[in-house]
């Protein structure tokens, strides 16, 4: 667990931490315990001498305390373990340590180590299991999922859509767990739905902890019992003021379990006995008739049904689990903390929580986990998500459960050697999370091979950075809308993770990720906001007032077509008052009540010309821009065209920055996100003399000119700055019309070839001289890895280094099920290959031009050649296609693509 006990005499911190109430300069020189790394210690020893040795070791290495719990063994029952826990807590507090209270025996939280459901099997997570098939008429055989049959139906297909009004009841054709039916001529969709407990294939069954049946988060009763068994057991021994002992509680990866992590023959929707009544009370109509719409079909009626269902689910989970725990914790004087499951891929947020953002709102100390310590792999965007919620709610504490798990853990049969992360890599990984708003680190790090001196350096570094950046509010012009409502409206369940989710839902995730990456690589800090916060915002002077001192002048909508009407109206008011609104990949269509919504459509027309593209302005300085699907990468151009940066540094510098206003001061953190040292100048939009606060040494020195700061940073290092006043970054004058400065350059013409997988029959057809080319694949075997690429090869080097993008025209035909994205591979003359996604699902029909940023390319895992990135100055091959797809035998996957272009920005 990252702490090796050593029997020794009583230890002291090499530098005793300052008290949390001390002046900032003292806290920066000697960071308080709560700002340092807090190892997670689940198995406290019973013997006092071993307890003391554990605490001594933590102090000697500079740690601030720990996250802990009563011993997992004989959980909650052993008085010996309770005695050990109480002694450790008392001794840790005597030494000035900070503690977090872990709330479970392992994970996911809620089971109390199996005690919660004792005598109450009806509290287990439940789901609707859906088996389905297609028929063109004739015999139909379909095995029913386990559980109680709730629906057996066939739907005729009209114009590609199920005709729900003319469903055929097939309940009488289900015998001994199987359907046998003779379908009339024509196209049919057939569905069997059962209700059953959820376990096999879910997180509860595949986690590395106890593989126990799990509680139903839609119901309040199991949460109440969980609190009685765990939290109230602590107050029974420590009193009602748990805040006197602990910073926060720590709940770990609770979820609905309605996502299969091992493929099943059926898909799943969450279910509970109280769900139908809650649905009807919330939405004004009954749930049962719309169950088929949650799985089949498309269009406004289907989207409204899905929006209402998942909205109800989000209400129940956020209140009946997170809300109950938060209310209990506030009543006992501490915030509820902890993190959710699968934070990075937002498409999984829907089946696991309904509304992830809404659940985060019911945490008093919003948290995350980070299972990697390779900086390039760190999910920094999750840190920004949880810290954005904290700022909106005014919560000063955020937390990351940080570790090098991905570098150490190996599944059976995985013979890769364990990778020992360095001090610098740990620092770089934690820097990215601090930059994006994390103020506390609990830790599962092994810290393997690191000496006490190194651990003390890490703790000083982390403690100083977290001390300087805790509290206040983030200052940035840019807000990105978390697309909860759109995801809910577009989502449908899968048999395997979310791989069968509709292309329209996958597109939301891709564009959301692309927008966040574009901001990050452009060096633009931002926050996230959801539809409810937008709906409740004030508007004036070209800015949104989100409360708690949070103000934003520019809002980006990543494939958002559904928001509360009040949110759409506030975005229109923002534009009318001189603010900026950028829509990427979708336009306003729906509100919470109407699918489609005429008022939302009118706002779309006013701001974006109904999708005409280009910039629309007004006499107050407002600017609205629509970037259609495929053009999301051009967002970087739009950022520069609209607003000057808050912190400016040279192009291609590996730097990132954040800005917070704390106690009347403007605080900036600039990091070098590279293993190599960097030297140069940066400019901060502030005025007057300030100070440079060095987290490596604790030194504070004058910084006379914020507009010209000479800076030298070691690899994965950083520097803090503080000034009295900030200067609002300049709003650029944006001319109405097309987004300018985009220049495309053709490459020498070549005829592509085809690169295909073993189980692919391929054909390529030139639709005209010089392209485009249609690439078609027929899969000869199902459920195996398949791929197909058009391969453009040049006999001499092509220098693309001066470009920012590769671009090409692409067309995807109607009716494809292929659940993978279009990919681009670049190979240089040395044999180095790099891969990038085009953010375009191959099940999404249409014709468009796609822009792929060169910064998006990452070295491919299979690449040959020397170490390091691909060299865009000597490109020899560009492949456009798809891979990693496990489709069905005889399935056809096709696309049409033009020759690639190099694209620069003037």
CATH-level-4 superfamily name of the largest domain? Phosphoenolpyruvate-binding domains
Q: What summary fits the major beta sheet? A: 8 strands, parallel, barrel
| Assembly state (oligomeric) | single chain
N-to-C CA distance: 52 Å
Number of helices: 20
How much helix, percentage-wise, in residues?
10-25%
Mean pLDDT: 96
Topology diagram in text:
Blueprint: H1 24-29, E1 37-41, H2 48-60, E2 65-68, H3 79-94, E3 98-102, E4 126-135, E5 138-143, E6 148-158, E7 161-162, E8 168-169, E9 174-175, E10 178-183, E11 188-197, H4 203-206, H5 220-229, H6 231-238, E12 249-252, E13 267-271, H7 275-283, H8 300-331, E14 336-339, H9 349-353, H10 356-360, E15 365-370, H11 380-393, E16 399-402, H12 405-408, H13 423-435, E17 441-443, H14 452-469, E18 473-474, E19 478-481, H15 484-490, H16 503-521, E20 527-529, H17 531-535, E21 538-540, E22 543-547, E23 550-552, E24 554-558, H18 565-576, E25 580-584, H19 598-608, E26 614-617, E27 623-627, H20 635-642, E28 647-648, E29 655-662, E30 665-672, E31 678-684, E32 686-693, E33 700-703, E34 709-713, E35 718-726, E36 742-746, E37 753-756, E38 760-766, E39 773-779, E40 786-798, E41 805-812, E42 821-828, E43 833-841, E44 846-853, E45 858-859, E46 875-885, E47 892-897, E48 901-905
Parallel strand pairs: 1-2, 1-17, 2-3, 3-12, 12-14, 14-15, 15-16, 16-17, 19-20, 19-24, 24-25, 25-27
Antiparallel strand pairs: 4-11, 4-13, 5-10, 6-7, 6-8, 6-11, 9-10, 18-29, 21-22, 22-23, 26-27, 28-31, 29-30, 30-35, 31-34, 32-33, 32-35, 36-48, 37-40, 38-39, 39-47, 40-46, 41-44, 41-47, 41-48, 42-43, 42-46, 43-45
Helix pairs in contact: 2-3, 5-8, 7-8, 8-15, 13-14, 15-16, 18-19
